[in-house]
Amino acid sequence: MALSPRGREVYFRRLLEIDGRVTTLKTQKAHARRPESPRSELLLQLHLESNPEALCLVRATLQRVAEVVHFQEHESRAIVRSVDEALANIIRHAYRGRSGMPIEVSCWRLWDGKDRETVTGIEIVLSDSGAAADVEKLKGRSLDEIRPGGLGLHFIKQSMDVVEFSRKRGKNFLRLVKFLTVPRQDRSREGE
Which structural domain range is residue 153 located in? Predict the structure, then answer.
């Protein structure tokens, strides 16, 4: 089911009104140019079961989606790692390692509100019916704590421009957005 840009905006506004939301938005100038009413196009929707063996298929598919949207190679890898970590967390924490539980991955291409030619980024929404996440644990641990594990959320927040968690009608939603960055021109070549 594809929603209109206005319908998606209303849908997410309702999701974000729910208690327990965790939001991170980078305030870098390059990402501050997001249009006021972004438009989107559904590129991919995957319905999978909580099975760690399926993650390699999702990684390969998302790598290709990031290429289609024209992300640079390092940004594509960061997007894939973020989604992979989020899916592993869903399996490990929301479903407590149980296999065969439903997970949905939706990928949307975002474009400038003025035209459909200027792609501005990608939006990925993960949903599951697992246990509600503990909002306190979603803050992540301090990087000063030296111990293995527990840094996945930190890496997701570092890699993505928007990270929003919400729960509605017994489902968890994780919304990840990555905006395309405009490569800086090499100033040393301007005078040539």
Answer: 5-142+149-180
Q: What is the pLDDT of residues 22-60, one digit of tens each?
A: 444 443 333 333 333 458 899 999 999 999 999 999 999
Burial class of residue 86 (count of CB atoms within 10 Å of its CB; 0-12, 13-18, 19+): buried
Q: Of 182, 163, 174, 164, whose CA–CA distance to 33 is shortest?
A: 182
With respect to residue 187, please indicate whether it lies within any of the assigned structural domains.
no
Task: Identify the CA nearest to 101 among candidates 57, 58, 50, 55.
Answer: 50
Main-chain dihedrals φ then ψ at residue 78, nearest 5 degrees: -65, -40
Contact indicator for 164, 174 with CB cutoff of 8 Å = yes
| CA pair distance 38, 120, nearest whole angstrom | 9
Lowest mean pLDDT among 32-41, 74-83, 98-107, 157-166: 32-41
